[in-house]
């Protein structure tokens, strides 16, 4: 089976005669670059360094392809797609009556299993081999500058890096400190995307992306879902209307949402999960999912051997190099800049290019938007939440822009007023906002909520990342009748304000 997530397609390269031919000593090997972690981020670092002719080792203790391929992006979207497609179909006159009954949960789960390659990584391993990177299976730990030890099924070996070690180990689910929680065997994001049976009742603790997406998926598959949110709303990092519209749709679908609620205790009694809230309410369910945050997977990778704190997020500059070193890079989730696969892959391309340039003794381009600077993950981070409705955003919210000291104005449009939206879905509900910088005349952020809006986000990302003046956007004419006509309506609202 082909790799289960999109990786750079590079023609197989002939190794320039170092690692594969240098010796047969399995205990010590030298490379130009050693990459810790073979998820999408590590793969992209390896792709760029191999393309530059640098010998590269990749170390992985689990499946090549990482969290995204097997426990996050791909399986979650495979679970969500049928739910969203059914919801969309039910909004189309003439089709609504043809879409009856529940989803075929067994077929959905089987399709999810195919998208994860049944948790086999042969395709990903083949891709790594095709670019000429060496895979070392086992647990990798730093053992001082430029040195990594790998303990695996075939023993222990030491890898040294002439130029760089890239830490691409990602993040893991963070569970709250509740007594006896381990005995409850709670779901985290991994179990929520890989479960092989639909629980009759599911409690979801959290209000962020994982919580809302998994509540959407399992509710559609037949679970009776209760969402417990400590804050005041869902999707608290987005514009307030995003969480409001998603909550409204989840409630209409049958889920119960309780805001301002925390879990005080949780036990499993005769197979049933019993959660007691801080208000003293007792809730029972078959499973409970905690989607309450992420922690870096850096607790046992030898950071202490190079003067860094084990288990910490790693600071990185705009070339993704750890300050105070000339060889250590922190790429993807571990640097806590943007915990998103696409942003991690973007950082990886920057890091790999920077490593290659430094290895060749070439100067790094000073241009903030050049090949060696991960600038966009400061100001133009895009994200789509695949709920029903979808919530998509890039850049700053209105509140975030104001906190940053920008003089801005929010421009809002009801998406139901857009002709293409009405054709897309009968009774279309959605909203769009652009945050305009009044001093520069450019966009600081855009948020779109509604069915199908995820496919509109890249145009917003281009506008924000490219710092395109609003006056120039008037000449980017949207096709009629499409939902993208919302751009014209936003510009008109800005003009008439």
Automatic annotation (TrEMBL):
<feature type="domain" description="Pyridine nucleotide-disulphide oxidoreductase dimerisation">
    <location>
        <begin position="381"/>
        <end position="487"/>
    </location>
</feature>
<dbReference type="GO" id="GO:0050660">
    <property type="term" value="F:flavin adenine dinucleotide binding"/>
</dbReference>
<feature type="binding site">
    <location>
        <position position="333"/>
    </location>
    <ligand>
        <name>FAD</name>
    </ligand>
</feature>
<comment type="similarity">
    <text>Belongs to the class-I pyridine nucleotide-disulfide oxidoreductase family.</text>
</comment>
<feature type="binding site">
    <location>
        <position position="293"/>
    </location>
    <ligand>
        <name>NAD(+)</name>
    </ligand>
</feature>
<keyword id="KW-0274">FAD</keyword>
<dbReference type="InterPro" id="IPR023753">
    <property type="entry name" value="FAD/NAD-binding_dom"/>
</dbReference>
<protein>
    <submittedName>
        <fullName>Oxidoreductase</fullName>
    </submittedName>
</protein>
<dbReference type="InterPro" id="IPR050151">
    <property type="entry name" value="Class-I_Pyr_Nuc-Dis_Oxidored"/>
</dbReference>
<dbReference type="InterPro" id="IPR016156">
    <property type="entry name" value="FAD/NAD-linked_Rdtase_dimer_sf"/>
</dbReference>
<feature type="binding site">
    <location>
        <begin position="206"/>
        <end position="213"/>
    </location>
    <ligand>
        <name>NAD(+)</name>
    </ligand>
</feature>
<feature type="binding site">
    <location>
        <begin position="169"/>
        <end position="171"/>
    </location>
    <ligand>
        <name>FAD</name>
    </ligand>
</feature>
<keyword id="KW-0285">Flavoprotein</keyword>
<feature type="binding site">
    <location>
        <position position="77"/>
    </location>
    <ligand>
        <name>FAD</name>
    </ligand>
</feature>
<feature type="binding site">
    <location>
        <position position="140"/>
    </location>
    <ligand>
        <name>FAD</name>
    </ligand>
</feature>
<dbReference type="Pfam" id="PF07992">
    <property type="entry name" value="Pyr_redox_2"/>
</dbReference>
<feature type="domain" description="FAD/NAD(P)-binding">
    <location>
        <begin position="31"/>
        <end position="343"/>
    </location>
</feature>
<dbReference type="InterPro" id="IPR001100">
    <property type="entry name" value="Pyr_nuc-diS_OxRdtase"/>
</dbReference>
<dbReference type="Pfam" id="PF02852">
    <property type="entry name" value="Pyr_redox_dim"/>
</dbReference>
<keyword id="KW-0520">NAD</keyword>
<dbReference type="InterPro" id="IPR036188">
    <property type="entry name" value="FAD/NAD-bd_sf"/>
</dbReference>
<feature type="compositionally biased region" description="Polar residues">
    <location>
        <begin position="1"/>
        <end position="11"/>
    </location>
</feature>
<dbReference type="GO" id="GO:0004148">
    <property type="term" value="F:dihydrolipoyl dehydrogenase (NADH) activity"/>
</dbReference>
<feature type="region of interest" description="Disordered">
    <location>
        <begin position="1"/>
        <end position="24"/>
    </location>
</feature>
<dbReference type="InterPro" id="IPR004099">
    <property type="entry name" value="Pyr_nucl-diS_OxRdtase_dimer"/>
</dbReference>
<feature type="disulfide bond" description="Redox-active">
    <location>
        <begin position="68"/>
        <end position="73"/>
    </location>
</feature>
<dbReference type="GO" id="GO:0006103">
    <property type="term" value="P:2-oxoglutarate metabolic process"/>
</dbReference>
<keyword id="KW-0547">Nucleotide-binding</keyword>
């Amino acid at each position: 089976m082909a790799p289960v997530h999109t990786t750079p397609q590079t023609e197989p390269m002939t190794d320039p005669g170092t690692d594969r031919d240098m010796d047969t000593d399995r205990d010590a090997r030298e490379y130009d670059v050693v990459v810790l972690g073979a998820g999408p981020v590590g793969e992209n670092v390896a792709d760029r360094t191999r393309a530059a002719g640098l010998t590269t080792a990749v170390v992985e203790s689990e499946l090549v392809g990482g969290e995204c391929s097997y426990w996050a992006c791909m399986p979650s979207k495979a679970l969500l797609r049928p739910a969203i497609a059914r919801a969309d179909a039910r909004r189309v006159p003439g089709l609504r009556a043809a879409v009856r009954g529940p989803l075929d949960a067994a077929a959905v789960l089987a399709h999810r299993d195919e998208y994860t390659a049944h948790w086999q990584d042969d395709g990903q391993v083949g891709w790594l081999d095709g670019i000429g990177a060496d895979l070392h299976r086992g647990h990798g730990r730093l053992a001082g500058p430029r040195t990594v030890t790998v303990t695996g099924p075939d023993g222990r070996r030491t890898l040294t890096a002439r130029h760089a070690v890239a830490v691409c180990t990602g993040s893991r689910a963070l569970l709250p400190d509740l007594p006896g929680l381990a005995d409850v065997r709670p779901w985290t994001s991994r179990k929520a995307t890989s479960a092989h049976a639909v629980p009759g009742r599911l409690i979801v603790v959290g209000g962020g992306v994982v919580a809302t997406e998994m509540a959407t998926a399992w509710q559609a598959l037949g679970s009776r879902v209760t969402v417990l949110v400590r804050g005041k709303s869902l999707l608290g990092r987005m514009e307030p209307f995003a969480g409001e519209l998603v909550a409204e749709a989840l409630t209409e679908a049958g889920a119960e949402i309780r805001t301002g609620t925390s879990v005080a205790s949780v036990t499993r009694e005769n197979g049933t999960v019993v959660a007691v809230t801080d208000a003293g309410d007792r809730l029972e369910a078959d499973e409970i999912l905690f989607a309450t945050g992420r922690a870096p997977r850096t607790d046992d990778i030898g950071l202490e051997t190079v003067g860094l704190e084990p288990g910490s997020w790693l600071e990185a500059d705009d070339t993704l190099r750890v300050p105070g070193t000339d060889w250590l890079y922190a790429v993807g989730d571990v640097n806590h800049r943007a915990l998103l696969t696409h942003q991690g892959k973007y950082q990886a391309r920057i890091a790999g290019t920077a490593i290659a340039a430094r290895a060749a003794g070439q100067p790094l381009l000073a241009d903030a938007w050049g090949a060696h600077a991960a600038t966009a993950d400061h100001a133009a981070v895009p994200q789509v939440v695949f709920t029903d409705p979808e919530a998509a955003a890039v850049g700053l919210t209105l509140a975030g822009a104001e906190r940053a000291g920008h003089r801005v104005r929010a421009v809002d449009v009801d998406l139901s007023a857009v002709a293409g939206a009405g054709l897309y879905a009968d009774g279309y509900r959605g909203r769009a906002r652009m945050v305009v910088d009044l001093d520069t005349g450019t966009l600081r952020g855009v948020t779109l909520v509604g069915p199908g809006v995820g496919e509109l986000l890249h145009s917003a990302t281009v506008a924000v990342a490219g710092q395109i003046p609003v006056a120039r956007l008037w000449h980017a004419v949207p096709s009629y009748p499409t939902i993208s006509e919302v751009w014209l309506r936003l510009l008109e609202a800005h003009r008439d304000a």
